Amino acid sequence: MPLRDLQSTGKYAVQASRYRERHGVSGAKSDGADAHMLTDMVRTDSHQLRAVAGDSADAEGIKVLARTHKTLIWERTRHIQRLRHQLREYFPAALEAFEDLAAADTVELLAKAPDPARAAKLTRAQVSAALKRARRRGIPDKATAILAALRSPQLAQPSAVTAAYAATVRSLIAVITTLNEQGGRQSFLLRKRFTSSLS
Q: Is residue 62 domain-shared with residue 158, that is, in the same domain?
């Protein structure tokens, strides 16, 4: 039986390792030897193997959503790392001000003020409003800490370099915002599909 037909038999070798021990000499594992062993097992011991039930359409749908959700999380992590690297180069105060670069209040404020000069001009009302929309607690204290960090002295890059970094950060923020939105949507769909499959 060709190896490609092994999966189509719908058989599962419950004791594949013991079958290998029974027929192997050295006990060493290799892909070629395992392929030969599994094919031989189906040919000679198929009556002792149990059929494996295929995944349902609902299970396949859940797997698709789960893979997409995982990919979005990975992509968001990559873009956050890039954002952190860019901010470290020209705007380290932002890293002091914002602990979570993917948080809704962080991306809102960085999109509005992606460079030190504009960030220093943010008002308490603007920062507090962003924190409120993100459903943060202890808004007055958080707003004070953010404003203090953004207005702290720091070494500055030349204006042309700062402008280039700011444009890059705005692009990264736009991508992270979209990944946040789509990741949340995929998470909702995944929970909904998984719950319905259990009912």
A: yes
Single pTM value for the model: 0.69
Contacts for 173-181 with beta carbons within 8 Å, 24 or more apart? Answer: 173/83, 173/107, 173/110, 173/111, 173/114, 174/111, 175/79, 176/76, 176/79, 176/80, 176/83, 176/101, 176/102, 176/107, 177/107, 177/111, 179/72, 179/75, 179/76, 179/79, 180/76, 180/102, 180/104, 180/107
Summarize pLDDT for 63-106 with one digit per residue, the tens.
888 899 999 999 999 999 999 999 999 999 999 999 999 999 99
Residue 92's domain comprises: 57-198
User: Is there a single domain that holds both residue 160 and residue 93?
Assistant: yes
Residues 127 and 187 in one domain: yes
